[in-house]
Structure formats: C-alpha cells, structure tokens
Amino acid sequence: MTTTPILEARDLHCTFQVRQGMFQPKRPLRAVNGVSLSIERGGVLGLVGESGCGKSTVARMLLGLQAPTSGTLAIGGQPLEEIGRRELAKRVQPIFQDPYSSLNPRKSIGSIITLPLYVHKIGAPADWRRKVEDIMDLCGLPKRAYDMYPSQLSGGQRQRVAIARALVMRPEIVICDEPTSALDVSVQAQILNLLLDLQKELGLTYVLISHNLAVVELIASKVSVMYLGRIVEEAEGQAFFRQQRHPYSQALLASVLTPEAGLGVPDAQLGSAFPNPIDPPSGCTFHPRCVHATELCRTTAPLPARDADGLVECHLFKDTVPAGYRDHDQGVRL
Amino acid sequence: MTTTLSVENLRVSIPLSAGVLHAVRGISFEVAKGETLCLVGESGCGKSLTSLALMNLLPSRAKRDADRIEFDGTDLLGVGERGMARMRGNSMAMIFQEPMTSLNPAYTIGNQLEEGIRLHKGVSAREARERAVYLLEKVGITAAASRLTQYPHQLSGGLRQRVMIAMALMCGPDLLICDEPTTALDVTIQAQILHLIKDLQREFDMAVILITHDLGVVARVADRVAVMYAGEIIESGDVAEIFSRPTHPYTQGLLNCIPVPGKTRHGERLGTIPGIVPSMIGEMAGCAFANRCSYAQDICQQHVETHTVAPNHAVRCVRAEQVRTVAAGSLA
Fold this sequence. Notes:
Oligomer: heterodimer
Order of helices and strands of chain B: EEEHEEEHEHHHHEHEHEEHHEEH
CATH topology of the largest domain in chain B: Rossmann fold
CATH superfamily of the largest domain in chain B: P-loop containing nucleotide triphosphate hydrolases
CATH superfamily of chain A: P-loop containing nucleotide triphosphate hydrolases
Largest sheet of chain A: 8 strands, mixed
Number of helices of chain A: 11
Radius of gyration of chain B: 21 Å
Number of strands of chain B: 13
Strand content of chain B: 15-25%
CATH class of the largest domain in chain B: Alpha Beta
Structural class of chain B: alpha/beta
Largest interface: A-B, 46 and 55 residues
Strand content of chain A: 15-25%
Strand order of the largest sheet of chain B: 7-8-9-3-10-11-13-12
Helix content of chain B: 25-40%
Number of domains of chain B: 2
Largest sheet of chain B: 8 strands, mixed
C-alpha cells in the first residue's frame, strides 16, 4: 500500500451556527465532526447513514462547495486549497439524486452536456459536438437526444444526461449522491449497470452516498458508516456485508427489507428517535439507541480503534485492539 | 374471512387534448378483514390513482367507472359525495407518502388528530383528546400529551408519519389505504413504521391496502400481491407463491432488476427490462407488455384473458403456462 490515495480527508469538521428561534442565540451544529476518509484510485467508497448524519455535507466538502471548518482534504496528494476551483471541477464531478431538478429545462441536452467544455475552454469548439456525442453514446443516449429537451426524456434518460454531463470533463472522481433513489426499479438497474460499466471503462473513482444498502453492497469496495457527524465503522465492502461490528451498522443491515416472502418485518430495536444534532447525547452519541449500552457509553465517547479489518468506534471493541493501533486524534474530540 | 372491500372492473380515464388517457384499465380485486393486499408497480402504472378512486378523491377531470365497488356491504358507486364524506376518515382512512406535506402546518397535532373523530363520532372534546393521546402512545410517540400542542414543523419525518398513522386510526377504520407510507423515510424508520402498521392491523383487525414500488416491502408485509403494469393487474396471488414462482414476464423482470443483499455478487450486472411503457392514450389492444417481452408472439396482440395457474395465483398472459415451464426449467 505505497500508492497515494486519490482522495484523502483528514479530521474534517464542519460546524454551522444555527438559530433555533427568532430570539434564541445561535448554537453550533456539528454536521461533520472529525471525519477521515481515503480512497484508492479506481475504488468505490460507499458512505451510508440516516438522513441528518452529515453524509451530504461531506459530499459538498469533497466537491469544494462547502469549506470545512477545520481539517484537510487532498486529491492525488495535493491539498484542495492549492488545486483551485476550476481545476477541482475538472477532477471531481457530482451526480445528484433528482434528474428532474438537476437539469435546466430550457436548454437542449446537447448544450447541457457541452456547457462544462465551454466553461473550461477544453479543446477546440469544433471538436465539442464529437466529444459530446461520444460521451452520450457511452452513457447509452441516442444521437437524436442531442437536440431534445429534458421534458422530452424519461427519468432514466435524464439521469443518463446528468451522468454524461459529469463525465464529459473526464473527471477522476465522481461523487454520486443517491444516484438511483428517485428512479423506478427497472430504471435503477440500468443506471447501476451503466455506473459499473463506466467505472471499468474510464477507471473512475466513485464516492457513493446511498441509503440503499443493497446498492452499496453491489458497487462499493469500501464502506464507511456515519452517525451524527462521525464515522463509526469503516471496512472493506465485502467484509462489511459479511460481518458488521458496530451495533449501529448491525441495526442498519438488520433493517434492510430483502425481497424474501414470509420473513416478516425485522425489528432492529433502534428506538425511535434520531437525536437532535444540535443537542447530541453525552458520551457515545449512539448510546440512547444501542442495545449494548453501558454506563461507560453514557459518560465517555469511545475512541476510534483501527485494526487490519478497518475502523470501529465503539467501547465494545476497544479492548480487542492493541493500543498502538488507536488513532491519534484524541485531542480534537469535542 | 369476511370481505371488506371488493372492486370489479375499475376504470379511471383522464381526457387530455391528445385523447383519453386510460390510466386504470379494468382492474378487480378484493381485500378481507385482517388481510394486507399490496399493489405494486412502477410510476405511472395507476396504483395511486386506484387508491384515490376508491376514496373518490380523484382530480375533478378524471372519470371513475366500475361495475361494482362494495365496501362493508355498501355500494360506493351509489352513495354520492355526502355519503363518501361520512366514510372518509371514519370507516376508511388513508396514509399518504409525504408526511411533510400532508399535515397542515398551521394547526397543532392535537387539532388535526381530534377534528375527524369529533366530526364523525360526535364525541366530547375530552374523549377525543384521550383517544388522541392513547393512539399517539400506540404509535410509539413518547410524551404524547405534550405533543398535542406541537406543530408539524417541530417533528421529524418519522414522527410525522407516526402522527399520520395515529390520525388515520382515530375513528377505528375497517380499511386502511397506505400509499407509499415509507418511501420518504430512512431504512431504520421504514422497518419501524411497517412493524407498527402490521401490529395495529392485527390489533384492530383492519383490511390494509398498501401501495408501493419496493419489492422488499411487498415481500415482508403482504398477504396477497397484485402487480400492476400500464393500468392493469397483470399478476396476482399469495405473496409466497408470487415471490417463489413469478410467472408474468414483467414480474420476473422486476425481480431480476433489484440487487439482493447476500445473493447478488459484487460488481455483477443486474437484469434489465428493455424498452419503455407504452403510451396509455387511446384504446390498447392485446398485452400492454408485449413490446418489451422476450416471450411475445403474434397471439399477444389479441385480447388477453387472466389465467389461473395455481390456486390463488392468476396471471394475465397468453403464454403463462409456457413461461412457467421455462422459468421452472431455468431454476432447476
């Protein structure tokens, strides 16, 4: 493992100051609270967690749309600040969830996909049409779609346009934020197949944000589970789906409804409430919902423990890991 | 089992400038007391319009037509708008998809919970309040009494959906229609809400119609399944039978499309259904799925009957028997 990871984040924090009422003072909301990530070139990082856990804020920071409060981000070993906005857009591109609102309804498909080339002055304008048609072909769009408008396309075709627009710049990293959750079942399969093919063909690196764990299992080579702004477990994709270590990961997997008749609805015993991120619980933030919670969990936050299988942040695991493997960020825990 | 709702040959059509859109094209089904029927299909297949048609809540230009809609022994086609208004929220209730938009932001939770029961049952304010607190506790909301004075924006998505369920149950309905009740929620909350619906169904002995596009939800919740495609029920039957021996090529295609944890291998290509749904404007002859079906022959252009291929398993496909043999062969 001597290669530099293509994407590396160290101890990212993002804190918003929010007001809860008109005359209330502002209070800090720690949306992302010390997240470290790294992905090898050609890998797929699956980022999972419930809504409000901060996964979309991480995505926005990776895209340079949201500046981290503290922490560092590097792409190909180069810090984000050195890269600059234009260069970053060439290397990291997003695909959003809803293909109905992410495309301008008044522009033709051709001009939507050409726009990044125009903005970044890539190649000669005479070549643009050919480039765009190539990428449309690669994304499974017919040539006649070039002069059509988003309203004339189906949801699946629109998502293909969004993918083509992201890939026309030939980025290294694509951030997919729930790329299939707005689509129908049969269309979802087509888009997932396309993402898999494109990854092989173009050697792309994906950051896949999804709450659909079946999709994550299919595509991701590495999984990070987020809970209230922290990564509570990280593991290789296949190992993770064989055996989850953090109680929260176990509960997430237990909640998945596989299409097998007769099994009934599982009970993950999670309690009802996702905690308010402005007022996080003391100690381990997961303890109010955890079946294994002890007195220690209520008072003391666990430290991330890293071993050969990945990382887990839970008191249940601190003794199984040699002290030397513990992460160094003890001082920055808030 | 007593039949709560029986529907025969329900049709919904919407006149458009380009012609008449036949959104629901002659579907028939029954739900019994204590039973869960899942209507499953992709967007545009007419499953939501079916539920609105049952409640007579269709948009004004859509036309409802049926041979018979019988609910608890009453003919719904004959009761008129006033009669329907007496039943809606009373003996038949509905839970909608978006808990964010289906609660009124200007009224407290308590107000919205109590309105229906006071109107329908004429109970006192105190009784209504007690029932509201009782049901909020039933759906797993802590500190129920203090929630009554809160507004929807003060609750999370999961809590709002629980309030919606409590509201639907206020008058003790015989039929509960859930239109994508968990689509907007997290997986963990989804499991809890479905659990809750099943528990309450058992306790109040309700008939439940659950509309969804998620085959995982169907498999875990349904007693019986009706698969819809282009406004028709193309396959229906017991849930175990449908999932173990799906017979219509469309149902088979749908089941091949979804990644299954533990079964689909990492990086494996998923099955797809080629082509797109046909336009539903104007009359349609023959099988609506024929243009996407790998089994299609000339005979599929003619009128398609529904065949019973096993007890409690009906398929609307001319070649049902052959498809079934082929599928069984590929499994062996």
